[in-house]
Amino acid sequence: MLTTPSTVEAAVVSPRKRVKVVIVEDHTLFAESLELALTFEGYDAHRVDLPDEPPSEAKLTSLIMRSQPRIVLLDLDLGQHGSGVRLIGPLARAGADVVVVTGSTDETRWGHALHVGARTVLSKSVPLGEILGTVRRLNYGLSVLDVDERERLIRAWVGQEQDIIETRRRLAQLSPRESQVLEHLMDGLTVGEIAKLRVVSEATVRTQVKSILAKLGVSSQIAAVSLAHKAEWRAA
Predict the structure, then answer these.
(1) Contact at 8 Å (CB) between 102 and 24?
(2) What distance in Å separates the CA atoms of residue 59 and residue 172, rounded to the nearest whole number?
(3) Which end of the chain has fewer CB atoms surrounding its CB within 10 Å, N or C?
């Protein structure tokens, strides 16, 4: 008898051999929707109840892998538990196929997730059927992301990382006083407020701001602050 895709699917996710899928998501309603849909499809699906106190990476990975899932659906933003990216590598090394399901539209974050071991990244805005289809394809051992698209997203992340390295190099060229001024700007202070705080003239602060902009290669205070935030920089 010829085996059809539907026959294969029925065999793969039948109650006798239910594939385990774990959902790591801090938005309860979305997690419950995924859990219900996957269970209806025949998967052994459950969401992880994240503890109130954020555990270590190792403990959280152990909690997720306790049931030895074949597939993990992982959010990138886990509230007080931080970024889900840090969990991708350990989960993949433990034998799980990690699918990132995120509300983030930042393709550099998607590329980072792929770089550290995610099989694919899906937006939370896609139809539920697309998420289920991805789980199904992984269960069949099929590809879930075009090679060219994977490389494009990873290149976007690598490019951003190189930009951040260059930004940090430029930030390191700031004098101690310029670093203090930039930090005040990051905290939302105006030139006048910085001058009063440091007991100097506004002209002195403006001169320092001008030097900061020149060293960072930008033309405005807003751009300088944006670069510093993107590089996760603070004055030493």
Answers:
(1) no
(2) 36
(3) N
Query: Is the pLDDT at 226 greater than 70, yes or no?
Result: yes
| pLDDT-based confidence at residue 53 (cuts at 50, 70, 90) | confident
What the block records as the tokens of 121 is 């990244």
Check residue 97 and report its DSSP letter: E
* Token couple for 155: 């290149």
Strands 44-47 and 71-74: unpaired
Enumerate residues 6+ apart whose C-beta is below 8 A from 155.
111
How far is Cα 5 from Cα 133, in angstroms, rounded to an integer? 13
Confidence check: pLDDT of 3 > 60: no
Nearest-CA neighbor of 42 among 16, 68, 70?
Answer: 16
> Exposed, middle or buried: residue 179 (CB in 10 Å: 0-12, 13-18, 19+)?
buried
Residue pLDDT, tens place only, 166-224: 999 999 999 999 999 999 999 999 999 999 999 999 999 999 999 999 999 999 999 99
Q: What contacts 24+ positions apart, CB below 8 Å, involve 78-84?
A: 78/24, 78/25, 78/26, 78/50, 79/26, 79/50, 80/54, 81/26, 81/50, 81/54, 82/54, 84/24
What does the pLDDT look like over 35-51, one tens digit per residue? 999 999 999 999 998 88
Contacts 24+ apart (CB under 8 A), 139-148: 139/12, 139/13, 139/19, 139/70, 139/71, 140/8, 140/9, 140/12, 144/99, 144/119, 144/120, 145/114, 145/119, 145/120, 145/121
- In this prediction the pTM is 0.71
3-state secondary structure 104-135: CCCHHHHHHHHHCCCCEEEECCCCHHHHHHHH
